[in-house]
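TASK: fixed-backbone design
INPUT:
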């Protein structure tokens, strides 16, 4: 049976629409009370070139971001795979309740959106969106983002000067100045070395000792940690 000209034309139009470039405004809002986001990375990419994937081991590039907020290796990785990139729309840290917006033009074939940034103060926590399919119809879409654990560092909840490099145990900074000191370290027994949903912070109320350097009235949090508002033009 021969397909009609109308059917063929329709199929071609649908196929073309599924890979067409898009103009996006991407706004990220920090929903937490006491966490800060390090420079945010937003990419549009194909189905293979992800920034991260749950239940897999973190790449070295993801580890560098999750432990120290360094997105440079992820940017290099995304550039090499011809992803479309928007980086650091907040021009630094994104504070609690603050928002930042990036404009992103996607190229043909880059149909998925991913987002990542380290959560401070955590050992290796990050806010993430993995491969959200970009709608083909114009409109405004809202997505809520979870906090993930890279699985590369123990969550000892100690703020340590000089930490943040991959493999150096400790939280590199606690923006906001409400963390404690001289903690002995949290021991959770979490041995999951894959990327997974972050269990959140425990903290305590002893700012001059205790187990954790995190303040349990400021730094405890639940998912979701961010809201993403995507406007497809």
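OUTPUT:
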């Amino acid at each position: 049976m021969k397909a009609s000209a109308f059917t063929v034309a329709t199929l071609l139009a649908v196929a073309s629409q599924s890979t067409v470039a898009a103009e996006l405004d991407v706004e990220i809002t920090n929903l937490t009370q006491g966490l800060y986001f390090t420079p945010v990375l937003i990419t549009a990419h194909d189905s293979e070139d992800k920034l991260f994937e749950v239940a897999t081991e973190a790449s070295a590039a993801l580890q560098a971001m999750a432990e120290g907020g360094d997105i440079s290796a992820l940017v290099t990785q995304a550039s090499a795979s011809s992803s479309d990139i928007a980086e650091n729309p907040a021009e630094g840290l994104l504070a609690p309740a603050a928002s930042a917006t990036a404009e992103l033009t996607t190229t043909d074939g880059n149909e998925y959106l991913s987002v990542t940034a380290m959560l401070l103060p955590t050992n290796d926590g990050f806010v993430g969106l993995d491969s959200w399919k970009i709608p083909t119809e114009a409109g405004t879409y809202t997505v809520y983002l979870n906090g993930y654990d890279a699985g590369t560092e123990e969550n000892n909840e100690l703020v340590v000067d000089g930490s943040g490099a991959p493999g150096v145990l400790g939280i590199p900074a606690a923006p906001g100045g409400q963390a404690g000191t001289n903690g002995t370290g949290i021991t959770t027994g979490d041995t999951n070395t894959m990327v997974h949903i972050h269990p959140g912070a425990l903290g305590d109320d002893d700012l001059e000792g205790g187990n954790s350097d995190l303040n349990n009235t400021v730094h405890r949090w639940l998912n979701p940690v961010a809201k993403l508002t995507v406007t497809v033009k």
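COMMENT: The CA atoms of residues 79 and 85 lie 8 Å apart.
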